[in-house]
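Dear Dr. V.,

Thank you for agreeing to look over these. As mentioned in my earlier message, I'm a first-year student in the group and I'm still getting used to reading structure tokens, so any feedback on how I've presented them would be very welcome. I ran two proteins. I've put each sequence directly above its structure. The first is here:
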Amino acid sequence: MMYNWCIFASKRNIMKRQSISLTKPNDEWLKAQINSEEYTSKSELINALIRQARKQQFQADSIRAKLDKSESSGFTVDTKEQILEQSKSLLNA
């Protein structure tokens, strides 16, 4: 399905209208979220998902930068991948 979206931005940005295509399962999922009254519109939900993805990307970039700094400092002989795996296992414990 094709939709026109009004994306609301901060005061510094101008609202942009976008047209996107959704698969049927994605469209049904969006409708279910709206019907659950957690979000008032598909635009609001799409913006929330984008904010969440941007936050996750920022966090991942921050971790990568810290890993790069640690690895280049000679503080450890572990690789970035090893440090990341150790961190993940600690978070999942």
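The second protein is here, in the same arrangement:
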Amino acid sequence: MQLDIISPEKKVYSGQIKSIQLPGIKGSFGMLNNHAPLISSLKKGSIKVTTMDNLSENFTINGGIVEMLGNKVTVLAE
């Protein structure tokens, strides 16, 4: 699935990934390929991404919004 992490200043990450874990306001949650569409608020915390090469990348955010639609994840991060 495609992931784009965008901050007010720049695009932080763009690429194909296997999975993502996010800090939701009601608890952490993850998404895999073909996840149901959703929009959710995010709290301060860490986003953990597993790339197609099975490498792990972490991004710290101060909150934001995530949208999953058609195997594309967009994170608007603060």
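From my reading of the second output: Residues 24 and 42 are 4 Å apart (CA to CA). The chain has a mean pLDDT of 96. Does that match how you would interpret it?

Kind regards,
E.
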